[in-house]
User: What shape does this take?
Amino acid sequence: MVVLAALATSACQAERPPGVYDLNIADAYQRLFRHTLPDMVFAKQCGILIHVRPEGVPNQRVMWRVYSSGQKVVEFSAALTAIGDKQTKVVINMPRGEKGGEAYDGSQFYTRPAFNQPLRPAVEEQVAAILESRPFDVRRVGPGKDKVCLVQRGGLESGRVFRVDDLPGMDARQSADCRDSRRQGGKC
Amino acid sequence: MIHRIFMAVAAAAFMTACTQQAGTVYPVKIDEARRVLTSTCFPPLVFGSQPPDCEARAGGASDIVWVGRLRGAEVFRYVATLKDEGNGSTRVAVTLKGAESGPAGNVAQKLSENRAIRNLYLVAMQERISSALERRQFDMSRIYPAMAAATAANMSSIRASVDEAHAASQKLARDAMEKAYRDEGIRR
Assistant: This one.
């Protein structure tokens, strides 16, 4: 009987539709609005340093704007809808990509990418982890496909920093040196 | 299939053990064998990324001793016993003895508890001796069965070691990234 009850309970839990969480909308909003997504940033960021700033419309929407060197590089949002008093449906919205589709969908090209692509699964996993009170699990996200990102992240992991406004083919230090040199009339 | 591999590995280990005990006869005069072997040292690859330092010397009239040292202290030694078989040929039998204390701990006990590793070290040294006396390149394929057996017997610790290395590499990457963010904060 205990086993049957456990099976019935897990079956009921499994029936929860995707994107629906067992939290009322105020709690869901508060959790998301407070979060700067550090685990997702660590797992998926590339070579440029990025900072996530959450903004929100209470109990309706949380938007995360991502900046690098003071410049906005991408934003995405979670739209919240109450389902009764105890559940909330969350829909992730990504902006349009320059090549069609959506930003960071795996088909876009960025000279200085902020995140590895595709980004949507990582955002969905991060939001789910926050609302289910569990750690972000990078294994649920799948590998990134952006080779530029992988190269630049390799640089960051070994102490070589990139900025979104770097000169082509240079990292942050090389770009700064080059700009200094140009200011003094030199070449680089 | 697994049964067949096991049988092949077991047969190889058995034959190797017999060869090590009885020794192998080479068509080389004993003086020449002694001269060649004292200028030979450990086999490649089997001791990992930090192989011990090797010192080869004659040990009495009939033995050649190879001492493996880490940070100057002995961790193990091979002893090859040479016997004149007449007609310009020499029998060479090799044994392995671990140190009972030192930088790598009680190697003698570790070797007696881990026979697959002990066998691999012996097979590899046997091939080092054979290749030297037969004036040919060291043949890795001759130690593959012993290597496969050692790998199978030590899979759990190999996995733990890989996990450890992965965790260490992740920590290094995270440290480098955190430093980059700290430095960025300082520059602001």
